[in-house]
Amino acid sequence: MTSLKRQKKTWWHHSNKTKRKLSKIAKNLSPEKRRKISEAHVKGKKHPMYGKKLSDAEKNFISIRTKEAMKNPLIREKISKSQKGKRKKPFSEETKRKMSERQKGDRGYWYGKKMSLEHRKKISFGIKNNLPKTAFKKGRKVSKEEIMRTSIRNKGKKFSKEHIEKLCVAAKKRW
C-alpha cells in the first residue's frame, strides 16, 4: 500500500498554496473564459490515463479511501451541499418507458421472490392502522402510543371532492 501512496503524488496534485491561488483566479473568470478552458481540457488520446487501466490493488485502494471518506460527516455534508439546488432534467417519456421495460419480467427486483408471512402481516397491519412508512423498517417496533397518535392525527380530515376523485383514480391504477 505504501507504494500506492507514493504514486498518488503526481502532476495533478497541487500544494495548498497553489490551490488557493487557482481558486482566486477561477473566481474572477468570465463564463466565456471558463467555457474555453473547459473545451481546452485534455481529453481523448492526449489524456495521460488514456488506454491505461487501474490495477486491482489501485482500485481497492481507491475503494477503501472513498469508503473511509464517506464515513466522515463533514465530507458527507460537503457533498450534500454541493448537490443541493442542482436541477436535474426530468426524464422524457421515452426514457421512462425504457426504464420501465428494463424492470419488467424476470429482470425486475421482486421477480421470483416472496415476502415472508411476517413481513406481509406487518404491511397489512400498517395499512389497516394507517401507520407512517417508517414503521415498516426491519427490526423497528411500533408502540401503541405511536399508533394512537397516528390515528388521532388522521381523524376528522376532510378531503375535497376533487381530491377524493384523484385518490380513487390512483387506487384503481394500482389494481
Give me the secondary-structure topology.
Blueprint (H helix, E strand, L loop, with lengths): L1 H7 L7 H12 L3 H10 L15 H16 L1 H11 L9 H11 L13 H13 L14 H11 L6 H14 L1
Number of strand elements: 0
Could you list the spans in which at least 5 consecutive residues all have pLDDT below 50?
A: none
**Tally the helices: what do you get?**
9
The portion of residues forming beta strands comes to under 5%
Mean pLDDT: 81
Instruction: Give the distance, in angstroms, between the N- and C-terminal Cα atoms.
Output: 56 Å
What assembly state would you assign to the polypeptide chains in this entry?
Answer: single chain
Backbone CA Rg? 27 Å
Give the helix level as a range of percent: 55-70%
Tell me, briefly, the overall form.
elongated
Instruction: Supply the helix-strand structural class.
Output: mainly alpha
User: Order of SSEs, N→C?
Assistant: HHHHHHHHH
Largest sheet: none
